[in-house]
Amino acid sequence: MHVVSDRQSPRATALEMAGRQREISVSEFFLKNRHLLGFDTPAKALVTAVKEAVDNALDACEEAGILPDISVQVSDRYGKSRVIVEDNGPGIVESQIARIFGKLLYGSKFHKLSQSRGQQGMGISAAGMYGQLTIGKPLHIISRIKGDKLASEMYVSIDTARNQPDIHKKKRLKWDRPHGTRVEMEMEGHYQKGAHSIEVYLKQTAIANPHLAIIYKDPHGEELRFARTTRKLPPRPVEIKPHPYGIELGRLIQMLSNSKSRTLLRFLEDEFSRVGKKTALNIIELARQHSDRKLSNRSYPKHIAHAQATALHKAIQKTRILAPRTDCIVPIGEKQLLDGLHKELEADFFTVTTRPAAAYRGNPFQVEVAIAYGRPGGAGVEVDESGHMRKKEAQETRASEHLIAQKDEPVHLLRFANRVPLLYQQASCAITKAVIQTNWRGYGLHQPKGALPIAPMAVLVHVASVWVPYTSESKEAIEPYPEILREIKLGLQECARKLAHYLHHEQQLHQEYDRRTYIEKYLPHIGVALQDILALSNNERDSTLKKLDDVLHESRTMQRPAP
Amino acid sequence: MHVVSDRQSPRATALEMAGRQREISVSEFFLKNRHLLGFDTPAKALVTAVKEAVDNALDACEEAGILPDISVQVSDRYGKSRVIVEDNGPGIVESQIARIFGKLLYGSKFHKLSQSRGQQGMGISAAGMYGQLTIGKPLHIISRIKGDKLASEMYVSIDTARNQPDIHKKKRLKWDRPHGTRVEMEMEGHYQKGAHSIEVYLKQTAIANPHLAIIYKDPHGEELRFARTTRKLPPRPVEIKPHPYGIELGRLIQMLSNSKSRTLLRFLEDEFSRVGKKTALNIIELARQHSDRKLSNRSYPKHIAHAQATALHKAIQKTRILAPRTDCIVPIGEKQLLDGLHKELEADFFTVTTRPAAAYRGNPFQVEVAIAYGRPGGAGVEVDESGHMRKKEAQETRASEHLIAQKDEPVHLLRFANRVPLLYQQASCAITKAVIQTNWRGYGLHQPKGALPIAPMAVLVHVASVWVPYTSESKEAIEPYPEILREIKLGLQECARKLAHYLHHEQQLHQEYDRRTYIEKYLPHIGVALQDILALSNNERDSTLKKLDDVLHESRTMQRPAP
């Protein structure tokens, strides 16, 4: 069924082809590739838009040292959705509003090395661009900065051919908030429940951000509130300079030629993290040997040639330098993570671990892992204060059920990057690969080959970094760099060991319970038999049985490992 | 192990935050995210660089109507790789060279709706940027256009802060090629063999491009040649206008306000594919009813308000319009695909199908599927001309082995988009999902739940489109849009039906062979027994046996289905 006809367009010459070469605006590029930004289907677009607005609000509040109060409101009519996100952040200076909301690749977080949710300067303007494409309406923004008597209101869209904001209306108005920002967007959307819902995104956000309070009003007008569990803001991540080990030769050459330092010694001290005078001198001495003594402490950075830069680059790799600083990243913390998990989901067993900081390609990062095992209503056994065992009561099931797998299902993953839940593209994510590559059978779980383990369990992994390497601009999965995979696996193993211990104990309890029930059932018969053989009175029989029971109980209790 | 100290950076005000807002250059963005462009590891970077250069060479040759002769040369010393790709294409006009090789998002293929390998204007300049980052050397380009006495030579790098080319050296020189382009790049690379090698990329490229001749010299100096199997160039894809069904409301509004047409009627006829006067009148009449008669044939496009545009958009969806034109896409073709497969790999059974063209979001696309089943050396049975069966001889194994799975392995996928092989990110690709979602058990293959079928088989899928929705800028996997998934599945089913027929026949042949061997073994014993019972002479016995054998053979042949 080969249907190609013999049609032939005229063949082109080099000159004609040259005439068709054009610059492509970055907005046009992403408009045509909107799935790269998370706007491929109306359902996903709606969640992505909420996520981008909430992430921005959280970043702004934290940077300004404000405890975030965020309200999210979503309505949905015949596939036309409206999203309103309002925060109590510091507000945005009027002259910046249009570019922040109406230009891709514009922002404050890209050029600095410190942890934040946003990093590309694309998310919220992409949401605006999607709304503009599907419904044709601009973003509506109100923002007020502290001390300003009025707020600024603006309608902004993107001129996609130039990647520049278009301001449609602009005015100053009274607003009851002392400071904050409100963004309203209309777009083709589809509201849905389930694993990829706004609710799940917000619930997971609350777990990873215990200092956050959110009020969410869904399209049916129902209100869902997530209260904060701590009034303490996370420490603000410090901005760092690049670590010398992560610098490629070409980048080093570029840094040398852009440097304002007047000597090589100053250049190394000024532009890198962890390089003091002594380390700098060591590097230069080594580079000197590699470059026929054509380098010295006083070499002028801009004049260093390719061969000498190569020698310098080699010398850096061979010099001992302190590991990257880690105060540029802020893990959630074991206690906070446990509190968050306890608050949002019900399980029989929790464990959590925070790994020490590490680095990939010079970028510091840190991994946290938590495991929640056992669903409420599962067949647990517990020991009460008096040492008596009983079956746990089936507890009321909560919405959190979605987060923990059924016992015959693959475990559920809660993936986070810089405190932001990742809901899509699970298969391509470093976190998923690390869980699959961990040998869960060694810890007593069932695991099909090359797949997630099967257990009533949720595995939470948080990767915090100054630069998270996402697999696409929609920031839905983490690129599996070997260093990152390795750290996640180590964290998983730590948690899995504690889980194995718990499961072993659980199993013993279960066996014990069965044995005990068995004994309790047959003790009266033993009593009758003994009475018969030893000719005991009823009282003697009962007291003998009582002693027997106690002895059996004690011997078993002694054997049981401490919880 | 919560290690966060009580450090606190000073909190920022809205004004300070405004001062940090900056524009991010698209080159800086991709430099920091180079994994998005396929340059995450040195091994992958090397393959990606070759691929980008070869894809460009092929596009240029085809556009100029030239049968492509391409040479690829790779060397690799201590992690420093050099790639040289040379073509006999039309050459590049000197004034365009720097921007084509030294600027991201610059090209001729983005804005037109017709099939080509490149579409983003990023690949080759990204390779240059990666070389610049890791080794610090610019790209070296030589290009000569037909009729020009001399060639242009240039060394080009990217000024990443501005996304503009830097020209380091430029001169005119003699070059023995009458026309063509040669690009040389140095980069951190790692040469490797196997499924993700340059060889496999080139072999698959040869399968999908039977008009191409390549000479490849690998780092060990060995030469590999892929000859062309046809001297006929594929028909050149025609450039089309957008189809009205694929246009979102926001885009329609933008088109209206940018239009040079003076009436709505002309606008519809001029700017869309498949809209003649009659269809345009139908659309307008329907839109008129939806918009309180505020629209007419003569409405001035730039003055149409949001409400009327909405009515127009609705009317378009409700009007019957011819399906998109398909001469903008060029499938490989069933015969060419079979020839290519036969040439590059050895199998017992081949089948191929080309689906009719379809569209996703207004973008025409077309799917081709081929299956190659059975590895040389497998236990096949064949019938020779005289009707005798024999076991197939084990054939010499070829390099092609890599492309067909072992019989206890998941099938191998050969994925193509616009004639370009896709080597990475198999798990996220629409092709993989379609193969997994197909019920292969129904066609006689073994298939674990939710996984690829297990068989000695290669499945080739080619998706050709005016705009392939890749899952990232590195163009390694196709986004699983429902329309695309559906077409791939239909193609797979067609091929699978033919495969099932072949397998059924194969199975019968096998059973037959076993039965026949059995009969041949016992016929002499039957002869002896008959001779004994019926008191036959030796001659009578032999002729009876002969008759018996023929009758048995015939009756079996009758039952056997035609091949």
TrEMBL record, chains A, B:
Which residues make up the binding site for ATP? 56, 87, 108-109, 475
Molecular function (GO) terms for this protein are: ATP binding; DNA binding; DNA topoisomerase type II (double strand cut, ATP-hydrolyzing) activity
Can the keyword DNA-binding be found in this entry's annotation?
Answer: yes
Recorded E.C. number(s)? 5.6.2.2
Q: Which SUPFAM superfamilies match?
A: ATPase domain of HSP90 chaperone/DNA topoisomerase II/histidine kinase, Ribosomal protein S5 domain 2-like
* Any one GO BP annotation for this protein: DNA topological change
The segment(s) forming the Histidine kinase/HSP90-like ATPase domain are 41-162
Keyword terms, alphabetized: ATP-binding, DNA-binding, Isomerase, Nucleotide-binding, Topoisomerase
* The organism's place on the tree of life at top rank: Bacteria
SMART domains, A to Z: HATPase_c (SM00387)
Q: Which reaction does it catalyse?
A: ATP-dependent breakage, passage and rejoining of double-stranded DNA
Q: Which Pfam families match?
A: HATPase_c_3 (PF13589), Topo-VIb_trans (PF09239)
Q: Which family does it belong to?
A: Belongs to the TOP6B family.
The annotated subunit structure for this chain is: Homodimer. Heterotetramer of two Top6A and two Top6B chains.
The protein's role, per its UniProt record: Relaxes both positive and negative superturns and exhibits a strong decatenase activity.
Looking up PANTHER family in the UniProt record yields: DNA TOPOISOMERASE 6 SUBUNIT B
This protein is called Type 2 DNA topoisomerase 6 subunit B
Which species is this record about? Bradyrhizobium sediminis
Gene that encodes the chain: top6B
